[in-house]
Amino acid sequence: MAFLLLLHEKMRLQRKVNKLTLRQLQLSSRKERITKNIERVQKMYSSKMTQLEKQSSLWTSQFKNQMLNGMGLGTQNQMFNPMGGFGITSFVANAMGQILTNGGKAIPLGKDKTIDSFIDGSLYTQMMQDYCSGGFQAVYDKDDNGNDITTKVSGYTGASGNNYTVDQYSCFQRAMQVAQQQQSQAQFYAQQVSSQYESNVSVWLQAAQAQLEEEQDAALLPLEAEQTDIELDNQSCEAQLADAKARLESVKQACSEGIKESAPTFGLG
Questions:
Q1: Radius of gyration of the chain measured on its C-alpha atoms
Q2: What is the pTM of this model?
């Protein structure tokens, strides 16, 4: 009778071991699925974070380029060629044109003296072409022997052969100096505005990243909770399986000894 009870316990424990082993396999499959889902969510939000950073960087670059191009300091419609090694920027050229045309009014040169030859802009265009083609050469007064008096400049000749008065040349040069000063001020202003915009974008980016992190945490919360439950179930299953295996091994040994004791000895014992 005792042997039959041991045999029944052995079968019960074996079924329990089998059920717990199957349960472990199921938990392992579920855990693998949950782990893949967690990785998928993390990769998705990591990609969104990267896109945010790239987008904010692109916005900053676009803002700066658009502003510089609008001011004549960028590369768009830029008359200055860095490979040429000579010339002026579109900003300076435009500023000079505004200075010299002077709103359609004559430019005052001193007491009771003005110059109105720049009003329609044609003279400025012609002088700018000469400037960009090679510049100007001074024309000097001659002495009685026909030699140049280098201290007395009577005018200037452009690269195209056009002649200009001393006043026209002086106005052109002064306009260039003022325009270049304005360009330096404009560059400083553009840098300030760009830095402020970049700072604002950085603030926005931090807020957007925080929002994404919150969304990611919300998406991961149920998955991580399920993962924790699976791990706890698996730990419980492992403990039960270890106990069941140990008890099964003990019952198996008891059954083996019972078989030996119940075996007939045929008078040899």
A1: 46
A2: 0.69
